[in-house]
Structures are given as C-alpha cells and as structure tokens.
Amino acid sequence: MAAVEFSTLAAGLWRQPTWGLTASELARWTQAVADLGVTTMDLADIYGGYTVEESFGAALREAPGLRDRLHLVTKCNIKLVNERRPQHTRHVYDSSAAHIIASAENSLRMLGTDRLDTFLLHRQDPLMDPDEVAEAFVQLEESGKVQAFGVSNFTPSHFSMLSSRLPMPLATNQVEASALCLEPFQDGTFDQTLERRVVPMAWSPLGGGRLFNDDTERTVRVRKALASVGSETELSVAGAAFAFLGRHPAGIVPVTGTQSLERIAEAQHALSVRLSREQWFEIWTASTDSSLP
Ligand SMILES: NC(=O)c1ccc[n+]([C@@H]2O[C@H](COP(=O)([O-])OP(=O)(O)OC[C@H]3O[C@@H](n4cnc5c(N)ncnc54)[C@H](OP(=O)(O)O)[C@@H]3O)[C@@H](O)[C@H]2O)c1
Questions:
Q1: 206 CA: nearest ligand 1 atom
Q2: Alpha carbon 156 to chain centroid, angstroms
C-alpha cells in the first residue's frame, strides 16, 4: 500500500453546522480551502449529530471534480444516542467488524463517494477485539471502499496492540495536541509515530479557541509566549501556535477548526515558518510552567 499523503494542514468539519452555509456555499468554501493547498478534510460520522457527512456530500455534488482533489478522512466507533440513530439506546463505543463495515458503507453513502481515503477508529475502545478490526479493515480494503486506516485518541500501547494484528500499517493517530496540550509530546504518542514513520494529526491546535478566550494563568502565560515568538517571526498568536506544532520532527498535521479562509491561510503560512529552538522552548516552558532541568 502506498504511503498516505495528507496535506500539511487539514481542515476540520466538526464545527460546520454552526457556519450556516448552503451546499453550494460549502462547496465554494471547500474549493477555496483546497486552492490554499489544504486538501485533507477531517470528518466523522457523528459530527453535527450525524449530519456533517451528509452536508459535505451535498456540497461535493455541487462541484464536479472537487471530490478528486480531496483526501477524505472520516471516523467511526462512537455510538451516540441521537434521533438519527434510534437503535442506539446508550452512548457506547463499538469496534465490532459489523459496526465498522456498516459505518464505512454509510459514510460512503452520505458523502456520495466510492471510496474513503482514510478511515479512523475515533476513540480507544476497551472492548475492541483487534482480530475483528483486522477482519473489517481487510474486507473494506479488498472491496476498494477504504484506501487507508488509522486511529484517533489511542495510547501508544493500544496503537501497538492493534497494529500487531493488522496486515496493513496504520496511517495516523489523530490526537489532541497544541501549546496547551503537551501530553502526546510526553506520553510516547509522537515517539511512536516517529518510530513507525506514521504521520500524526493534531486536533484542536488552538485548544478549540481556548487560547484566545480563556484567562487562566497557564493560558495567559502561553498566549504571552506565543505573542512574543510571533513578534519575532511576523506571526499572530494563532500562527505561532501552528508553527510550534510544525517545528516538531514528527511531521504533525494540525487539523484546523475555523471557517475563516484568512485564518486557514495564515495557519498554512505559519507551518512554513521554522521556529528556532529558543523560540520553541519559550512556548514549551510557558506551557509547562517550569524551566528545563
Ligand atoms: N479526533 C477527535 O477526537 C477530534 C476531537 C475534536 C476535534 N477534532 C477535529 O479537529 C478539528 C479542529 O478542532 P477545533 O475546532 O477544536 O480546532 P481549533 O482550531 O483549535 O479551534 C477552532 C476554534 O478556535 C477559534 N479560532 C481560531 N482562530 C482564532 C483566532 N485567531 N482568534 C480567535 N478564535 C479563533 C475558531 O473560531 P472561528 O471559526 O471564528 O475562527 C473556532 O471556534 C475539528 O473540526 C475536527 O475535525 C477531532
């Protein structure tokens, strides 16, 4: 299997229901984002209470040729109690072969496409049987319905355990990471993706907006450090936060959540700015609130 190619920045559709766009407006937005070089689109079956894939599929139908410019990432294994899923009686995770296959087929229908570029297990599931996952992944790969597979929010040991039963490599571990969320830098997640040459994806690269609207001591400290580094590199606070992720050797692909084309363009530019060690550690130590040993 060829290595999976993500764009250096991915666009997240989680917040899409709040944008209030018609299908043709969402198509134009997606084209403009792709024109910026951001061609990886991050979705999940559950986004918008099981509505976002369908909205995105409607947008794709508005713009012939657009689908082939994109790398579609979507996810499964969370079952939400929702009026669109009356059969879900409780909020659970389900990584059974039957659920994975049914989810992929439903995502294909919603998106109106014949293939998912990367299909992720959304959450680490204590009841996941890796042999069942392998069975589902092989079936989806052999039928051409899914090109590559990955996981999200997996610990390194869970990632290893699943990998040990799969005939194909996992393409990514999509985890929360930002100047406000350093865990994957410290808990072995990025060590493992480096070791295995897997491209990690970082969700909420701006802390879901907390970087701007939270006034706790730590956030204020991190914002100040980002502003200081930004003033040296001609980046905004947000730009410096993207450059912070981009400087790490793991080759992190941030998944941005904004609707704003200007903010996406700025994030894309920031990923081409290489911070010095001094600048990177200024942000790191502001976040850890300790000097280096
Ligand atoms: N795998 C998972 O479990 C998981 C979990 C959560 C999210 N995700 C993925 O990650 C994507 C991104 O997550 P996220 O939306 O939390 O990311 P984020 O980029 O950290 O946060 C986006 C929020 O920050 C605001 N923002 C961005 N730039 C700003 C600025 N310069 N000043 C003020 N506010 C600013 C945005 O508002 P504006 O729209 O007004 O710019 C938006 O409300 C999601 O869409 C989803 O695809 C995955």
A1: 20
A2: 17
pLDDT score at 1:
47
Q: Domains in the chain, start-ordered, CATH in brackets?
A: 10-171 (3.20.20.100)
CA gap 272, 229 in Å, rounded: 15
Instruction: Show Cβ contacts of residue 11 under 8 Å, excluding neighbours closer than 6 positions.
Output: 30, 33, 38, 40, 41, 42, 255, 256, 264
Point out the residues of the chain with pLDDT beneath 70: 1-4
pLDDT of residue 4: 67
Give the HSE-up count for residue 274: Cα atoms under 13 Å, Cβ half-sphere. Answer: 4
Bridge partners (DSSP) of residue 75 are 120
Beta-bridge partners for 201: 174, 253
CA 123 to chain centre: 12
* Ligand 1 pocket, CB under 6 A: 12-15, 42, 122, 152-153, 174, 203-209, 212, 238, 255-260, 263
